[in-house]
Specification:
This protein is α+β, with helices and mostly antiparallel strands. Helices cover about 20% and strands about 40% of the residues. It is built from 3 helices and 10 strands. Strands 1, 2, 3, 4, 5, 6, 7, 8, 9 and 10 form a 10-stranded mixed beta sheet that branches. The longest helix is centred in the N-terminal third of the chain and has 10 residues.
Length: about 130
């Protein structure tokens, strides 16, 4: 697995961008995209050392991150990794007691590549992104 990004849940992308710009001093922002399958808006932010943050905002009340905003828990939401084979990566995580949080789905933010989320035994979320080369 290769580290890809840290997912941060924000109430809306504007507030996330303002925080990253004004507090963290970041200035490299991707274009915002809506993912209707994931029911979120996402935007990526890169620092000068190559660390990538994914700002994740709800795209409606039925978004899977709406509850995160309401409870202010799990705001630092997930660690994402790229894998050559999502099936093999998922099998490996399940063997290490990670619970799938749903089936894999294509993600707009990754050009339709499939992603899948897992709950780790330590309680944090791991996202696998299939690296379609």
């Amino acid at each position: 697995m290769q580290f890809d990004h840290i997912g941060l849940v924000v109430p809306n992308l504007a507030s996330g961008v303002a925080y990253c710009r004004d507090v963290l001093g970041l200035s490299r922002f991707s274009t915002a995209v809506e993912d209707p399958l994931q029911r979120v808006w996402v935007q990526f932010v890169h620092d000068e050392h190559g660390l990538c943050y994914e700002l994740v905002a709800p795209a409606g009340e039925d978004s899977p991150v709406t509850q995160v905003i309401k409870t202010r828990r799990n705001v630092i939401n997930h660690l994402a990794y790229r894998v050559q084979s999502l099936q093999e990566g998922a099998t490996r995580l399940r063997e290490q007691r990670h619970l799938p949080l749903g089936p894999s789905q294509p993600a707009v933010a990754f050009g339709g590549a499939h992603v899948q989320f897992f709950l780790s035994p330590l309680g944090h979320i791991v996202e696998l992104i299939e690296d379609v080369a």
